[in-house]
Design a protein that fits this description.
Length: 209
């Protein structure tokens, strides 16, 4: 399959992850880090919200059904955001917590990721609306992804992100000198990720996702 983008160790596929993952040897992946659709029915409220430039969010594909993480668990080192929504399908592990320093009154104050990197609980605090917010309905800060990539991988490691979204993991890997493969079904988000990677000056202070 021809990549949508392939430069400086960053490879992006506009495709279904089911079509790309079989070609990737799990033994070559240093970390699988992703934020999959996990069945929280974001297809009503978020679909009507505006992105920068007046565009509306694309539907979050498959987000109105239960998520099965079994294919992702074939990778030996994983971080899966939203794991609390499909915890009954996960083996014992640890948790990573994104603590939001200024959450909306009706929004969750934290978000959780299941991981097999540790059996403990690790946390990272940042604003929910950093600069550049509004590119994706389930957006995560680049700083959060950078914290994970920097702590649990080494320069040159390959990071795999089967549900790329607007590319926060891609940007973190670019900044930290990690190789990256991202897969995204919605072409608009592929374009957003490439645009962010092509910026001359990258945000090194906790940025947006």
């Amino acid at each position: 399959m021809t990549p949508y983008y392939d430069r400086d160790g960053i490879t992006i596929y506009h495709a279904r992850c089911e079509d790309v993952l079989p070609s990737i040897d799990p033994a070559t992946v240093g970390l699988l880090l992703t934020d999959p659709p996990y069945g929280i029915n974001l297809d009503t409220d978020y679909a009507g919200r505006k992105m920068r430039g007046g565009k509306t969010y694309a539907q979050v594909a498959h987000d109105a059904q239960d998520f099965d993480p079994s294919v992702l668990l074939t990778y030996r080192r994983c971080v899966l955001w939203g794991g609390n929504n499909f915890s009954d399908a996960l083996p014992p592990g640890g948790w990573m917590v994104w603590r939001k320093t200024n959450p909306h009154p009706f929004a969750s104050e934290c978000e959780l990721a299941w991981t097999n990197l540790t059996r403990t609980i690790r946390s990272y605090a940042s604003t929910i609306r950093p600069d550049g917010f509004g590119l994706h309905p389930t957006q995560k800060p680049v700083g959060l992804m950078r914290w994970i990539v920097d702590r649990w991988t080494e320069p040159g490691d390959l990071v795999l992100d089967p549900y790329m979204g607007s590319g926060p993991v891609a940007q973190a890997c670019y900044e930290l000198g990690r190789r990256y493969i991202g897969i995204e079904l919605v072409e608009d988000y592929c374009a957003i990720a490439v645009s962010r990677l092509s910026q001359q000056t990258l945000d090194l202070t906790g940025g947006a996702a």
